[in-house]
Amino acid sequence: MFGRRDKDAVAESTAAEAVAPGTGPYDAANAPVEDGIQRLDLGSLLLPALADLELRMQANDDGSIAAVIIASPDSALQLGVFAAPRTESIWDEVRADIAESVIGDGGKTEEAEGEFGTELIARVPTPEGLAELRFIGVDGPKWFLRGLFQGKAVTDEAAAEPLVEALRHLVVVRDREARPVREPLPLRLPKEFAEQAAQQQAAQAAQEAAQQSGGTERRPSPNPRTT
Description:
There is one protein chain. This protein is α+β, with helices and mostly antiparallel strands. The chain contains 4 helices and 11 strands, in the order H-E-E-E-E-E-E-H-E-E-E-E-H-E-H. It is globular. It starts with a helix and ends in an 11-residue tail after the last helix.
């Protein structure tokens, strides 16, 4: 008879295996070790660095990273990662909440089946008319990943393919800290971006200091007094 710890370990292992049947998003416990894919370390997400995709970060008011956005010229995929139960799925509940919010704002929703399971197609009112969005959800062991497709990728498979390819190679790194369900997992700027930002800030500070120094520097008089 299994003890509680044994049951939890078996359940967590089973959940992790269910997330990665050959493609991602992967849990860090069973991500490919050597697949030749370079990934940017964003803390709770290891994002594949794929050509022709631009990385953007959406920040909260306190400066923390709220979401990651990968974009192509005509489409975007916003990613958020959250704490979740070890073995229970929360996508059904999250999807229902999103649909309720969209409908409450005057929009429409419908469900469809896609590569990552049940998706939610939303049509939300904008000043230009109804805009289409596509939500996906992936339940992992103690984490939940939400994706939001925008632009042509909502309805055009070819436009969506580069973004979907990024999802197939994405790795989720769940920390060991106990967190309430749906609490965002910590994200950070990748090291390369942080170093670049620090260099830009240092250069800007040096430029401002030089300007201030130049503004207070005493210049020689055009008519020097002689004795």
